[in-house]
Amino acid sequence: MDLNLIYGPITEELALVEEELKRQLDLITLSQSPMHREFITSILGHLLKVPGKLLRPALVLLSGRAVSNIETGNNDQLIKLATAVEFVHSASLIHDDIIDGSNFRRHQVSLNKQFGNQIAVLVGDIFYAQFFSILVNLEIKNKVHREKLLRVFCDTTKKLCFGEIYEHKIIKYGENPSLAEYLEVIENKTASLFSISCMGGGLLYGADEKVLTALEKYGLYLGLAFQIVDDQIDRDSIFDTEIDMIQKAKDYAGLAKDEIAIIPENPIKKRLLTIPDFVIERAKVKNSQS
């Protein structure tokens, strides 16, 4: 299953997200003294030289489109929210690589390996700052929705940090976590951002509370399935168990699809229903190759 095919209806928007990422990086660089700009460009653009899957921005776009009547890909605010999500995801990856001492990311030398931990951690901080800068400048007319969006993204940022803390505690003290403890780690580290990406897209378009809750839970279950599969593929899970974790991922993928039954049928919703299948398919492909 090809993720690019799933992205079909939002291909134009994802291209705009990539353009907006570059524009935001240019804004940061141009705000600095000309004598430093070449170096600033090299450190800020290092991770983004090799694009990721853009799954989280795609979830923002698909969720927003699934609950709206917008058929074209020109909603500026949705593009900016998707861009903000990619900034916070990139920041978390940079800090994760520093904590883990990783030397590679996206098939290239990691930022921390190339420029050192000191610079890498500060680049991550800059990305977090830019994420919040984009958020607070979003044009959202509904004051309640605006406040909720800011609040839940702030809460999610803390969850990302606590997920790292809990995982590091387990590794540092040689603990053997229970299933509940493992799920708490991956819910904070991964699923929380999936969840808010989906809910954020719906919130931007003024979806009602039932739909927002459905999108939030869809993203949560999808994120849990995604990280479980990732850990099984990489064979580096902190949770060592005899439990069939791929089956656990399948269960969460099924729950994700069930959650968005409340959304009326439309072509974009079908794409959201396909993503959990893509996540599980990754495990099948890996198993067939091993």
Question: How would you describe this structure to a colleague?
Answer:
This protein has 290 residues and is an all-alpha fold. The protein has one domain (3-289): Farnesyl Diphosphate Synthase, CATH 1.10.600. Helices cover 74% and strands 1% of the residues. The chain contains twelve helices and two strands. The chain has a two-stranded antiparallel ribbon. Strand 1 (104-105) and strand 2 (108-109) form a beta hairpin. Helix 10 (209-234) packs antiparallel against helix 11 (245-259).
How many domains? The number is 1
Helix fraction? over 70%
**CATH architectural designation:** Orthogonal Bundle
Strand content: under 5%
Provide the CATH top-level class.
Mainly Alpha
Overall 3D shape = globular
The SS-based structural class is mainly alpha
Task: Provide the fold topology.
Blueprint: H1 3-6, H2 11-30, H3 37-44, H4 55-66, H5 76-100, E1 104-105, E2 108-109, H6 111-115, H7 117-136, H8 143-172, H9 179-204, H10 209-234, H11 245-259, H12 267-289
Antiparallel strand pairs: 1-2
Quick recap of the structure?
The protein contains twelve helices and two strands.
